[in-house]
Structure formats: structure tokens, C-alpha cells
């Protein structure tokens, strides 16, 4: 049985093993990856929305993951924005898993943020400060303008019929 080892550069220090140097590659299961990092990896393997994607060496399941991730905040994030956000979150004393979820979900309101952070009041976490950081450093979600344009086109096509 042929197993492929996933070799990825993890951008922030706390997701790495204690023995690795900054910038070193880590092996699979060495830490959690953000959705951005998974999307970046799939892009590097040739995944795209292109109709000729069937000739890329990507498994069908990987395309399903790719198709999902391009519709999420991961598609608008950059390595720089994710790294900067993770570094600044250290000041808020939130857990690594909470930072990962905030990056992946990009909450835009307190209602979306509170389920991500476990007992924020008991830990005296500045949730408003985290939301400001999200707004300042993480790009907006893929615009709904695209979806509105598609809906308008569908409406126009129905009217022309």
C-alpha cells in the first residue's frame, strides 16, 4: 500500500513540534492546519475551478474539500494575514485551538465568536478586542456580490424565457 506523506510548512510557531526550528517542515499529524493552509496545499497540487481540472493529479475527495474551501474565508486569506493574526492573538491568552477556529470561521460578531471561545468571561478574554483584530487582519469572507450576480443572471434568464 502506497502512503503519501504530507510535508507542509506551518506558519506559526505554536503549531509546530517543540523540536522543530522556525521555518522547518513538519510531517503529517505534527499539528493542526488552518483551512487556508489546506487550500494552499491543494492549490500547489493543481486544484482549481478550471474545467480541465480532471487531468490534475488530485483525488476526487480532495476536489470536494477544495470546492468547499474556496467558498470560505480561507480563499481570501494570505499566509501573512494568518501569521500576523495568530501572533497578535497570543496577547489575548486564547488557546491554540481557539485561534485556529477563529481563523477558519472568521467570526464577524460576538454571537459568532462566543461559541468558539470556551468560558471567555471566566478567563477575562477581551472578545471585542479579538473581533477588532479579526476585522483588521483577516480579509472579508468571499463577497456575496458574486452570489447576488449569479442570482440576478438566473432571474434575467427566467425573464427572457
Give the tally of β-strands: 0
What is the CATH class of the domain at 35-137?
Answer: Mainly Alpha
For the CA atoms, what is the radius of gyration?
Answer: 19 Å
The parts where pLDDT drops under 50 for at least 5 residues are 1-24
Going by helix content, strand content and strand pairing, the class is mainly alpha
Largest sheet descriptor: none
Share in β-strands: under 5%
CATH topology of the domain at 35-137: Growth Hormone, Chain: A
Q: How much helix, percentage-wise, in residues?
A: 40-55%
Number of H/I helices: 7
- The fourth-level CATH homologous superfamily of the domain at 35-137 is RNA Polymerase II, Rpb4 subunit
Describe the protein.
This protein has seven helices and no strands. The chain has helices spanning 35-44, 60-69, 79-89, 96-105, 110-113, 127-137, 144-160. It has 161 residues and is mostly helical. Helices cover 45% and strands 0% of the residues. It is elongated. It has a domain at 35-137: Growth Hormone, Chain: A, CATH 1.20.1250.40. Residues 25-144 form the RNA polymerase Rpb4/RPC9 core domain. Keywords: DNA-directed RNA polymerase, Nucleus, Transcription.
Q: Can you give me a brief rundown of this structure?
A:
This protein has a domain at 35-137: RNA Polymerase II, Rpb4 subunit (Growth Hormone, Chain: A, Up-down Bundle), CATH 1.20.1250.
Amino acid at each position: 500500500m502506497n502512503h503519501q506523506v504530507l510535508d507542509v510548512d506551518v506558519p506559526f510557531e505554536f503549531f509546530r513540534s517543540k523540536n522543530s526550528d522556525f521555518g522547518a517542515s513538519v510531517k503529517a499529524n505534527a499539528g493542526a492546519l488552518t483551512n487556508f493552509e489546506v487550500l494552499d496545499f491543494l492549490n500547489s497540487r493543481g486544484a482549481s475551478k478550471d474545467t480541465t481540472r480532471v487531468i490534475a493529479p488530485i483525488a476526487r475527495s480532495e476536489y470536494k474539500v477544495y470546492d468547499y474551501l474556496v467558498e470560505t474565508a480561507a480563499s481570501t486569506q494570505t499566509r501573512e494575514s494568518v501569521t500576523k493574526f495568530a501572533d497578535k492573538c497570543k496577547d489575548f491568552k486564547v488557546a491554540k485551538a481557539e485561534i485556529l477556529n477563529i481563523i477558519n470561521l472568521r467570526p464577524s460578531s460576538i454571537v459568532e465568536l462566543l461559541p468558539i471561545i470556551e468560558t471567555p468571561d471566566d478567563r477575562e478574554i477581551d472578545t471585542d478586542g479579538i473581533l477588532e483584530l479579526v476585522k483588521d487582519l483577516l480579509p472579508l469572507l468571499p463577497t456575496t456580490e458574486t452570489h447576488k450576480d449569479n442570482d440576478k443572471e438566473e432571474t434575467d434568464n427566467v425573464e427572457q424565457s
